[in-house]
Amino acid sequence: MLQKLEKVLLLRTFRGRTVRIVREHYVRPSVPCNSPLCPQPATCRNDGKLLSGDVTHYMTPDWKVVQDYLEILELPELKGILFMQTACQAVQHQRGRRQYHKLRNLLKDARHDCVLFANEFLQSCYLPRGRGEPVEKWQTRSIYSAAVWYYHHCQERMPIVMVTDDEEAAQQYGSETGGVFVISFKNYLDNFWPDLKAAHELCDSILQSRRERESESQESHRKEYPEHLPQEVLEAGIKSGRYIQGILKVNKHRAQIEAFVRLQGASSKDSGLVSDILIHGMKARNRSIHGDVVAVELLPKTEWKGRTTALCENDSDDKATGESPSEPMPTGRVVGILQKNWRDYVVTFPSREEVQSQGKNAQKILVTPWDYRIPKIRISTQQAEALQDFRVVVRVDSWESTSVYPNGHFVRVLGRIGDLEGEIATILVENSISVAPFSEAQMCEMPVNTPEKPWTVSPEEERERRDLRKTHLVFSIDPKGCEDVDDTLSVRTLNDGALELGVHIADVTHFVKPNSCIDIEARTRATTYYLADRRYDMLPSILSADLCSLLGGVDRYAVSVMWELDKTSYEIKKVWYGRTIIRSAYKLCYEAAQELLDGNFNIIDDIPEFRDLDETSRRAKLEELVWAVGKLTDIARHVRAKRDRCGALELEGVEVRVQLDEQKNIHDLIPKQPLEVHETVAECMILANHWVAKKIWESFPHQALLRQHPPPHQEFFSELRECAKAKGFFIDTRSNKTLADSLDNANDPNDPIVNRLLRSMATQAMSNALYFSTGSCSEEEFHHYGLALDKYTHFTSPIRRYSDIIVHRLLMAAISNDKKMEIKENLFSNKDLEELCRHINNRNRAAQHSQKRSTELFQCMYFKDKGQETEERCVCDGVIYSIRTNGVLVFIPRFGIKGAAYLKNKDGLVISCGPDNRCEWKPGSLQRSQNKITSTTTGGESVTFHLFDHVTVRVSVQTSRCHSDTIRLEIMSNKPYMVPDTELFHQTALLPKSDLVKEVTRSVEEAQLAQEVKVNVIQEDYQEYCQTKGRSLYILLEEIRDLALLDVSNSHGL
């Protein structure tokens, strides 16, 4: 029985008046205690994670201890931790979303022996705040009271130690209740965990940092920064329009000078601004750190500045360029921080010489973050000399207005600088990726599949599912060595002559039940993380590489979408969704499927399923497989050609594969070769995603998970339009249809690279596609710009994406709904689904960034091992695609590299080309115009570089002790590089899509015109079927920029 109480809050208004607000608060007679010692488990309903029963005591931290020592409480050695709801809410309200999410994930993690006790919802524990009682005292009193109740609830069988840093509370409550002890956190570690070295080191680091802060605040009276405005003033100012809310994004190439605030929420609609707001200089940034949600005050227009257009390697060059900025843009200053998004930062300690130069007090050390966008952090440590060769994790504690730098503390060591494992660990920490092994509790939920106890299809599932094992030729087409096979395909002719196309996806939700331990872990990870040399799975390998993977020759559960098609026009007559049992006949790689498509049947010797067949069976099965691959491709060609007319967008990108030898040394960087079967498979996946999106939205219009791709901002296309204009092309960006047509027409017959670069620029201008809940926005906002689809989702990769698991559950619920059956799936509400979508979007960005960073790491390793003077591959052809005031941006097709090549060096010398076209540095000046830049020496020699000129470039590596190594480009000659014959195959890998596809597209268009198809019919077909051609959109628009290497053309440095 719920009991309604009143909670009184006193809030201060914008004008300073105090307002009394009364809120309803409901308490109940029982809540889950999550203890194995519970005398009434049925009453408490302890159906979740339980505390361990074999500990000597339970420990409950005070609210301040949770805030300050969370990384110590995260240590798995500490067991029996009882977090009170009061403490968790204090973290949420005072430390921001990121730390609160860390705490929530800790509580969910089955590897950690800790639980949450909802003391504020229990009648026996809830304590109203006394009149005039400070919030901090009330929180400590509530936590102590709850600890006493918990001790008695467990029948006094388990002592409880409350740890607090409030000395007054320790004295007041220390001996009040037998069995409940109150001591300081430092005393707790000294007495109960004297040998836990990691905890003591962390504790000492945090305490030392706190002492330094307190001493500094007493000594320093000079303000380095203005004070932040109070939260209520900021909120009122945002509401009135005086201040603008947004997320701070620092330009990594000019971290000391340039940051931008990306408008957020109501501010983006009400401010009337169409661009980001420039925050110029550290003073204007006012102690906000990259990623913080800030409130900004616009400066008068007379004080607006422009972003700098000169090339810059890092922030150390900021003051050296002296170049004029671009046109002034809205400029502001930060007046307050609405939400701190501080995280763990990887830093490097200064060298021995730098430590000595920092002054007398060597215990206060300025460490340099690996991420250029983060300011130096001051920490207190006596280990500076011992740690100077290592990558180290630190956390920021505070940034006072009297301090030039933020204060933080040491957390842990990752590894040696330059060591592969240490650098990979750095990438993971920088992207907040946790890759701990799956816990025992999670693995206990896994099915068994061993030679002694093989997994088999259950009789119950055979009755419930449609069995396709004897009726359908099912096969997969995946990259070589792929273990997590999410999808398979089938096509067959029905009795009436019609065709049936099937997409069969691994039924992960059969094994991963809602809110199970493995489901919670998969939800936290949200995706499989693919790095250049490894991957970190979202699900255990027993599922991802075995029972859920649709391997060849074994029975597997699947969720299928099957369409009946007209045999000639391929029009869709009807569609069926449901659970199936399949047995994949072939596990093909893309290259083998392409060979079969091209008529090269010698490849069957490399297909394992053909090896043990006699000649007759081999010929019959080969004929059957070739027909299926050919028919799938034919369907994809015609459907794609028809949809091209509706404006589906085809963009450009180079996916670079890192080739390693057996010792994991980098052997080569290979641009992935586009094949027509890539397009065939992608087209089938897009079709399935589109139809599933329509189905789940029709059944659950307010709580379906879809994927939207908003139209890009027009100003982002300005560089694309200008570059195309230099070649005499006009790019119309008013819609995806006009953009697609313009890009198709922007072909230079003498240089196919031009069209690729223009499409790459269009890709750079795109917004990111995002997951969302359909109840959170209007139907007009569902649209996927790149794929030209009104509704789209992700259904086809549940082994590696948690979003697809949610979509599978929604689809199963929709099928149950159609059959008037009870919905067994636990569906998220719109609010919960929207929160989950934000989490998945965040983890997807982390996955993309970590993949890109790891590729850059191996790329640098590759070129670092080469002698730049003698190694042929370090010299290659480059194409200029952007002009800056002191250099050019160059694209290298051979390696998919984009980077800066300077025409003016740090000594002020400019590039000059002699009679042999070789370049050297001489005194002189640069003159830039829109589409070209001219270097003129004091001797009167000049050389001009135009947009899309081919130049010879040398690739080298610029090493950095504190940051990641980067690729450095140097123009060797103003003439194209002659490609050796041995590398010609790499160039063929970069050709556009096959002439065959173009021919089919053209023939279908001519046939449609000959039949005089009416416009309204075309529009209906478009609404029903519209999808894009080309694999590039299926992959690239899902993961825009994931594998593009360093591109300094992005002026935001994001």
UniProtKB/TrEMBL annotation:
Catalytic activity field: Exonucleolytic cleavage in the 3'- to 5'-direction to yield nucleoside 5'-phosphates
Domain RNB: 465-817
Protein keywords: Cytoplasm, Exonuclease, Exosome, Hydrolase, Magnesium, Nuclease, RNA-binding
Places the protein is found: Cytoplasm
Cellular component terms (Gene Ontology): cytoplasmic exosome (RNase complex)
EC numbers, comma separated: 3.1.13.1
Protein name per the record: DIS3-like exonuclease 1
GO biological process, one term: rRNA catabolic process
Cofactor: Mg(2+)
Keyword Cell wall biogenesis/degradation in record: no
Function per UniProt: Catalytic component of the RNA exosome complex which has 3'->5' exoribonuclease activity and participates in a multitude of cellular RNA processing and degradation events. In the cytoplasm, the RNA exosome complex is involved in general mRNA turnover and specifically degrades inherently unstable mRNAs containing AU-rich elements (AREs) within their 3' untranslated regions, and in RNA surveillance pathways, preventing translation of aberrant mRNAs. It seems to be involved in degradation of histone mRNA.
The species this protein was found in: Desmodus rotundus (Vampire bat)
Subunit comment: Component of the RNA exosome complex. The catalytically inactive RNA exosome core (Exo-9) complex is believed to associate with catalytic subunits EXOSC10, and DIS3 or DIS3L in cytoplasmic- and nuclear-specific RNA exosome complex forms.
Pfam families for the chain: OB_Dis3 (PF17849), RNB (PF00773), Rrp44_CSD1 (PF17216), Rrp44_S1 (PF17215)
Lineage: Eukaryota, Metazoa, Chordata, Craniata, Vertebrata
PANTHER family attached to this UniProt entry: DIS3-LIKE EXONUCLEASE 1, RIBONUCLEASE
Location (main, coarse): cytoplasm
